[in-house]
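Narrative of accomplishments. A recurring question from our advisory board has been how the design workflow behaves on a single, concrete structure rather than in aggregate. To address it, we present the structure tokens for one chain from the evaluation set, followed by the sequence designed for it. No filtering or post-editing was applied between the two.
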């Protein structure tokens, strides 16, 4: 019988890449040749280290990942690439562990690897995404002494300023960027324009877009135009929004789903459903496949226009196009039907969700429950209430108040007792609920009934 063939370092990298289970990948990495006894240690490649660290980091198996990093620090045959450590810093950031990200950043030199602006930018990005604005400022103090900030550095800073509503700081950062000779790129302008639009400063955003093309010679990109189109659609300036779409097409920029979805949503909202369908078809022809968000935008617009027939047609079209409706698709329609008092249709759709292959979520339950309470369908609402509690959901306090108030006004003691018992079991009876019940009893001289209610609800 021939001896088993040993796995080579190159073969190990290939096997690790194909192994989807991070635990099995770790076992393979730690013992690549279990059937072969060799006095020499396995000569791992840098690629193998990169692959296993990435798999463990994505799976948030940080203890195991750190064990591999310690092993990597003892390697003398090669110097690890900085990107490996940038990835580790990002993994810690996604797990909301900025202190761990800092530790990794500090340890990079111990691996004989030089830190460049890439690792500094990665730390900045982690701090920004974790909301550590003060630590960002502290980190920036010494940055200039070690590396030269690049466009990515300034883009992160501008984004942080915009997200915190400090647009003046964002402008100052943009000015500093230019003074230092760092050329702004499409991301820079997209970030600034998005921040301006989010703060309703549309005129400034439009001027900046013009400067981007005329002064800075930056080619137009869809992410730059998307916030402008969204803001124009929000204020009802659809002709200007379509003008920007035409401008992108003149520059031969391929439109993304965000641009199409924004226009479709606006057209649907303003009752121009024929044009919305036309844009949808154009989107398909251009090779940009509509997704659930696109179709949901149409559904929402039609529901706002109370055109539920059109909304249902979109559902059918989604299925036909192979795009499965999600719970948001149904929640929008259920909410629209409830708002218009079509509670029977809303309830029918709600009960039909399992057949449609969609599971109700808490938003769905709260929507149908609130709708039934609004239209005084208290018996049906009580049934939904029990189902919610069974699934571990709870309605909003406003809806509970509306249900109890309605039952008190009707003096429906049997249903009121049932509701109070359910609410008591869920620990959702507050002072406001008891005030409603006692007020009802005083008006209708039913204090003895209230006493019985209290005794029944309070007894475990």
């Amino acid at each position: 019988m021939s001896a088993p063939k040993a796995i080579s370092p190159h073969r190990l990298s290939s096997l690790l890449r194909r192994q989807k289970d991070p635990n099995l990948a770790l076992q393979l990495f730690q013992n690549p040749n279990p059937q072969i006894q060799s006095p020499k240690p396995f000569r791992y490649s840098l690629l193998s280290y990169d692959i296993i660290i990435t798999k463990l980091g994505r799976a948030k198996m940080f203890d195991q990942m750190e064990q591999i990093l310690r092993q990597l620090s003892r390697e003398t045959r090669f110097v690890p690439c900085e990107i490996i450590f940038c990835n580790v810093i990002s993994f810690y950031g996604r797990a909301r562990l900025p202190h761990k990200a800092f530790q990794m950043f500090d340890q990079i030199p111990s691996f004989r690897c030089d830190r460049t602006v890439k690792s500094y930018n990665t730390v900045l990005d982690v701090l920004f995404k974790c909301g550590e604005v003060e630590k960002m400022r502290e980190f920036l103090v010494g940055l200039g002494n070690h590396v030269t900030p690049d466009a990515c550095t300034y883009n992160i800073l501008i984004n942080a300023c915009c997200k915190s509503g400090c647009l003046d700081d964002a402008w100052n950062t943009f000015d500093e960027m230019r003074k230092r000779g760092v050329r702004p790129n499409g991301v820079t302008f997209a970030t600034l324009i998005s921040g301006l639009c989010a703060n309703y400063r549309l005129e400034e955003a439009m001027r900046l877009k013009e400067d981007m093309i005329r002064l800075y010679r930056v080619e137009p990109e869809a992410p730059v135009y998307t916030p402008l189109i969204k803001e124009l659609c929000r204020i009802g300036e659809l002709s200007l929004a379509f003008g920007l779409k035409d401008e992108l097409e003149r520059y031969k920029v391929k439109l993304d789903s965000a641009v199409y979805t924004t226009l479709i949503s606006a057209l649907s909202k303003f009752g121009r459903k024929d044009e919305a369908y036309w844009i949808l078809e154009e989107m398909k022809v251009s090779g940009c496949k509509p997704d659930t968000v696109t179709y949901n935008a149409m559904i929402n617009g039609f529901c706002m226009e109370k055109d539920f027939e059109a909304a249902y047609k979109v559902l059918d079209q989604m299925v036909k196009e192979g795009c499965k409706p999600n719970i948001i698709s149904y929640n929008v329609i259920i909410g629209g039907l409830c708002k218009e008092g079509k509670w029977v249709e809303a309830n029918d759709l709600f009960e039909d969700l399992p057949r449609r292959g969609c599971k109700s979520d808490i938003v769905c339950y709260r929507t149908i429950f609130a709708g039934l309470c609004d239209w005084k369908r208290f018996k049906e609402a009580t049934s939904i209430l029990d189902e919610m509690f069974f699934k571990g959901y709870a309605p909003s306090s406003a809806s509970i108040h509306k249900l109890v108030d309605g039952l008190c006004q009707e003096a429906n003691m049997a249903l009121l007792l049932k509701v109070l018992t359910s609410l008591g079991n869920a620990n959702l009876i507050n002072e406001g609920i008891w005030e409603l019940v006692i007020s009802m009893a005083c008006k209708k001289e039913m204090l003895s009934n209230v006493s019985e209610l209290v005794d029944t609800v309070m007894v475990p």
